């Protein structure tokens, strides 16, 4: 669980990004922050008419659109993530959400999710016909890439992170056009060790496609996304080159011994499946190690196929009406064994889904939905038995049966947002973070002309309020009594009173850097300082958008701005914050070259995202954090 400080800082980053653009005021809140789902921008699906089971008028049905939410490890929405469906990219909104209509006649939807600074992932959901107004819900959690490690691409390299060792031959990497990579490169790593890490951050279900036969369920020993970069471009192994990957085997996996082999799988984002590649050998090292050979870099998984299993049929219903809830995601987390067979099930039009798990194992089930929250004190525990059974087969025993109740009842929390002079602040985002059984959840609203605001909330014991506006921040923790929960709507007399939330300006830190563009003189690269170029420092990770109608403030909250001096240098004061990231945008979008004329940093990845050290400093007094050198192509300055 996140510490209070981490929660506050993550929220400050997110609220800062939201403050840079329009905020939709939501009357509902659930495990999916910002439940105001944007229009998918596609024609409405054709409606069918099914007979009413009670003999009344026909009920209009449609193929449910996919309401997908993307969030990070802190539970915060990731704005600007690319969600690709059938080759078309859809960007998540400021609440991390996107709504996508299924293709005509599709039986399933498979989407790929990418966001800068995170390992890629996927989501697969069935296409369900149900009543108009329903949605198929999906929550995708992205794993952040770790700190990049630099190395010489022209020499043999041994890189190690979290006990995983990568041995790379000299001159092993090529760029996107197949050219050999020279000079410095970087490696990023995002790993999941099943005995200790959260498997909900896997890139897709643990289903493997063997070289022959039907797909198999898998139990993971270790999985990781390993990527190589240079100047922001992703690299790959040259044809015919292999890298050696050594994965530690946790002591929790007691069935392995030196000389055993374990299947090695790579993840195919297009089909959301693990594809068999080769075998890893178990060797002795610092404990047992799975030694593997990789011919390309992506998500890799050391897994063994699962044997017999149990299954559980889950029915999800509305706690108030008893009606089935279609489009709910049911997640199962293993309690008595390592790994999960099926990370989710999605309910059909009758609110039913089925989840496999290890025979005689114990799992905890929880449900997610865009409009509902699980109406219980904790996940539902299911204990298997000795009789093998599977959702996909009629052979063996019967599946266990359970029911999960969900509710959409809401209470509300209201208050007033003030500045340091006790004056009402209008138009500022106010974010409330609270804990649900499925992890962090949040609600969002915007202060009115008189500074008042109201958040719609489920029954919770504590809400953390955060707002960031005009370089000032406010934070407060409000205690509530979930046992005395009263259903109420914003604007009614039944809202809990949060009192005053005061925006305060604080101390500053500062950053500095320099902008050059490089040209060739006498066969040597020469840096040319670029003066009078705009510099914007944004809170968090923002999308570097360009377009005729895109203004700098549209990208997110600007913490500081200025222009480069005659030497190409800049130094800017920022509000003092700890352990947060900023995006540095220098230059202007070019009429012909677009975002290519926004500067990139001269570190190997070219990234313009920086961690702020949080040291009190100012441009006037000195001690600014050095961001280094940035570059733009000379073509950007030619007439």
From TrEMBL:
Biased composition (Acidic residues): 45-57
Region (Disordered): 25-61
Top-level division of the source organism's lineage: Bacteria
Signal sequence residues: 1-24
Protein name, entry field: Carboxypeptidase regulatory-like domain-containing protein
Keywords on record: Signal
